[in-house]
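A note from the maintainers: we've had questions about how concatenated examples are separated. There is no special marker in the raw files; a new sequence line simply starts the next protein. For clarity in this README we add a label.
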Amino acid sequence: MTLDLLRHGEPEGGRLYRGNLLDDPLTKKGWQQMQASTNGKYWDFIATSPMIRCQAFAQHLSQTLHIEMQVFESLKEIGFGDWQGQNVQQIGQKTVNKFKQNPVDNLPLGAENLHTFQARVLDAFMQITQDTMQSVLIVAHAGVIRVIKSHLLHLPIEKMFTMEVISGSCEQFKI
């Protein structure tokens, strides 16, 4: 099976920790980023987060390319607790760096447990990949993509935030 992981493009409001509560739509640039990453590609199935910054583009691809699409609640981004709606400057670069180096022990106050997040994402991932489709596109968030990549690359979940996932990027795996 070929698996493509597409991160949503730039949302309105700039670079923030949106998490699973803020649901800003994509900017024009965000749409262009995603279109550039998917241009000329085709899949048997599209799975998407229910968040508008993912689902709107997934719906567009589904309708344009006549591909079956399904929304998975479990593909929502991690809940960032007190950080939701804030940018790095508001949180503090040192605090963000500590989190990225050791997210298990440095989660923001009120944030979703990292292992709980991993379990829900991988549960959806297993549902999506259990069929014998040739190619699947998952449209999701940086955190969701990091969990799946960590799983596929056999990396500990504690290292997931050391992986960069660029807005609008699409990465392919053979599984």
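[label: protein 2]
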Amino acid sequence: MKIAIAGGHGQIALLLARLVTDAGHDAVSIVRNPAHVTDVEQQGARAIVADLEQLGDDDLALRLRGVDAVVFAAGAGPNSGAERKLSVDRDGAILLADAAERAGIARYVMISAMAADSYDPERAVVPARSEADVFQVYLRAKAEADANLRARSLRWTIVRPGGLLDTPPQGTVDVGRTVPRGSIPRADVAAVVLHALLDDTAVGVQFEVTSGDTPIPAALSALS
């Protein structure tokens, strides 16, 4: 498979690119900053320099020719402000879906956030009134992007991980439409995405995931 990863310089995205290439497939990482190309290439991926906040879906679709599946792993990141939560975390995800449809790419995996639908609509407004309210905007952005994807005829999977850790992967998880609050290594989130793509599992499923006791392939198969 050839798998394109939006937000290619993010921590999960870099881990995923390495997993994809180690599994014998092709990773194409979409990055905004040309300075990040080397980091992506060190993971075995090919870089596409493209700014999701500036491109149209036609332009992005052209750059995705030959791709079999897309992964949305982009995010505005910390200290980015409420406006960019919407323009990147929401609008970037929707742009990628529009481009995938134009390019004839059916498979789309979204990396979202646990409990995204629980945002407070009175606080999730722009401009944000506090840093705590910026997080509410972030959850709103994720929830609205997920809802947009669920309404499409793409073969989508929405992964909602708990608190992200930089610890070594465990390879075992707890998954479900909702699961108790918990954390998960970023490396395990990357592995969940990889298995969903390569095993073609959890299609049309939105689920939360934290560390648990079930091996990742079995956990995803149970969801399907």
